[in-house]
Specification:
single chain, 5 helices, globular
Length: about 160
């Protein structure tokens, strides 16, 4: 049986911290699906199509990684993809607490789902999509945190 994992998030944008998590997870799984979900609590600065293209371009040479968009429950998406593992990145104790709560909720929804917490490398612990969006919107250099260029900011 193939070990399939889903790495779900809004990825607005997909940072080098996210890339770090994928690099750590690749040796553990046969296939990783980077799943771009819609988070009703977040305002997306980039279209789903942009994010799909940017992330897909990063992994064109890695056949074990695919990128998809989805709506609805992450656990339901995992079921549809036959994924038993959900990868979650953790940068700090606040992330850990949030992910622990998410794990508990996911277990109620899908007891066969296992959450795998991957800790960010120290170099990327302060990096968040929110930080990158703020730098981008202010015209500051965000390039140390992304492997691709964002479009010019439009107010």
């Amino acid at each position: 049986m193939e070990k399939i994992a889903v790495f779900a998030g809004s990825f607005s944008p997909f940072t080098k911290g996210h890339e770090d998590i994928i690099a750590k997870a690749l040796p553990l799984f046969d296939k990783i699906i980077i799943a771009i979900g819609h988070n009703y609590q977040k305002k997306d600065s980039f279209t789903v199509e942009q994010r799909l293209r940017w992330i897909s371009d990063l992994y064109t040479d890695e056949p074990r990684v695919s990128v998809r968009a989805y709506t609805g429950l992450t656990t339901e998406f995992c079921r549809q993809e036959n994924a038993r593992y959900l990868i979650r990145g953790v940068r700090n104790t606040l992330d850990f607490i949030q992910e622990e709560n998410m794990h508990d909720a996911n277990q109620e929804l899908s007891s066969e789902m296992e959450t795998i917490l991957m800790f960010a490398s120290p170099k990327w612990r302060a990096v968040s999509s929110t930080l990158v969006r703020e730098l981008w919107s202010l015209g500051a250099d965000y390039s140390p945190y992304l492997s691709y260029k964002l479009p010019d900011y439009q107010q």
